[in-house]
Amino acid sequence: MRTIIHRRNVAVNAIIVFLITSLLILPGYTLAGTPSTSLNGTPHKPAYIENIEDLIDVQVVPRPSPVCPLSPTTTDVNIIELLQQLNETLILGYLENLTSFGPRETGTEACDQAAHYLYDTFNDMGLAVRYHNYTDDRVSGSNIEATLYGSDSTNIFIICGHYDSVLAGPGADDDGSGVAAVLAAAEIMRKYEFGHTVRFVAFSGEEQGLIGSRHYAEDAYNNNDPIVAVLNADMIGFAPSGSDGIKGKIFENTASEWIVDYTQDISQLYAEYIGIQLFPQGESGGSDHYYFWEYGYDAVFYHEYNFNDYYHSANDTIAHMNITYSTRFSRLILATLAEMAQQPRPVLEITSISGGLGITAQITNIGDSDAIDVNATIGITGGLFGFINITATTSVPLLETQGAVPLKAKFFRLGRITITVIADASNTDQVTKQATGFVFGPFVLRVTGIP
Predict the structure, then answer these.
(1) What was the pLDDT predicted at 7?
(2) What whole-number distance in Å separates Cα of residue 432 and Cα of residue 451?
(3) Segment (H or E) for 221
(4) For the residues of 96-146, what is the DSSP string, one character each?
(5) Are 332 and 245 in contact, with CB atoms under 8 Å apart?
(6) Interval 144-164 mean pLDDT
(7) What residues have CB less than 8 Å from 101, skipping those under 6 apart?
(8) What is the reported pLDDT for 10?
(9) Does 259 map to a domain?
(10) Residue 67 and residue 191 share a domain
(11) Pair (332, 422) in one structural domain
């Protein structure tokens, strides 16, 4: 009897083990709490961070969502001209220069030398360049930022990668490939004029936990920088087989899905020069886009399709990269960035707030395309005993470039007032301007703008 019971227990245990094992190997099954992995099972993450819970938690007031650029529907000869200049020689040259410093762990002399090289290279391009220095309890370092100012807009588009590496190796793919794409984009785009501002940024401290990009995104948030999109390139140069060389990954959060759509449209329009199909992957905390998400900015993370076999090792060298693939991936990011930066956009400005018989405000479209479905509001509060709370609105279906729309509010009150004018449109960002004044009956006097 004992033997039969023992055999039954063994059989039951075997069935349980079989069922659990089957669940674990079923496609799409993931244990709760297990980070997402790449195709060969290795998660992309900073070298010295075990999981996303080790990153700093950020609590901020949500930013208003920017108006997204519309995806292009036809090819542009200007974009083709840019793509033809981004070749393997350019990418390889930047990779050789960057990896010549050896391992570039943040805080080491080699990393500092690489920072100086990046600064000097951007400076020689004639761009406005600066060190963005930071100090953290883990490590201190510098991000390098170069800026190509827009001619008609303060909107900012960013292309970025991280120039630091692990101590074990020279980081050719991780992330020399991304920084080479940033440098190549800067070298080519600097020769042209764009309507919107472009920043070319190389971060350090990525391997220690996205430290450089966290401080950068935090400062951008505190400065209220109008960043519309961040294009982060990290490991875009490994493709050991032909099929790997025509595919790529892109990571995004919900707010940034429009950038995925935009990039996919670019890859189709310029397929002859790019030849890479993107596969959306969802969210990831494994690279420098992450803290832009945390601070309310739209960002994506471009990544090779087949994860690098030599990740975080001495063999992450140029010899193990596919320079043709890296060049094509860099072209994809360049074309996306350039299309966004050149796209005409309306820009609303509240050009005046004046008194007299009531309050008059004027909203002007100072941008380079028509504003659609414009809405403007005057709000008046305050007065004697704080009893004034008046609103006047106006709407126009279309406001042409350099066109203006007046907004009037008439009322009969007494006392000091605060005036708030708000304007927006379906294809541009909201603007707000405030002023103070004194109302005496129907007349508004001493109107003064609030900085």
Answers:
(1) 40
(2) 11
(3) helix 211-222
(4) HHHHTT----TTSHHHHHHHHHHHHHHHHTT-EEEEEEEE-SS-EEEEEEE
(5) no
(6) 93
(7) 110, 111, 113, 114, 117, 170
(8) 43
(9) yes
(10) yes
(11) no
The enclosing domain of 110 has a CATH number of 3.40.630.10
Tell me the residue range of the domain where 396 lies: 348-450
Bond from prior residue into 136 cis (ω within 30 degrees of 0): no
Is residue 36 a contact partner of residue 284, using CB atoms and an 8 Å limit? yes
Taking only the tens place, the pLDDT of each residue in 62-118 is 887 778 888 899 999 999 999 999 999 999 999 999 999 999 999 999 999 999 999
Which run of H or E residues covers position 182?
Answer: helix 177-189
Residue for token pair 């129907």: 442
Residue 92 domain-assigned (yes or no): yes
Closest CA to 249 of 299, 304, 306, 289: 304
Domain termination residue (choose one: 304, 324, 342): 342
Lookup: tokens for 89: 């020689």
The H-assigned helical ranges of 26-59 are none
Same domain, 102 and 140: yes
Rg, C-alpha atoms of the chain = 27
Total domains in the chain come to 2
Pick from 263, 237, 238: which is nearest to 251 by CA? Answer: 263
Tell me: do 315 and 441 sit in the same domain: no
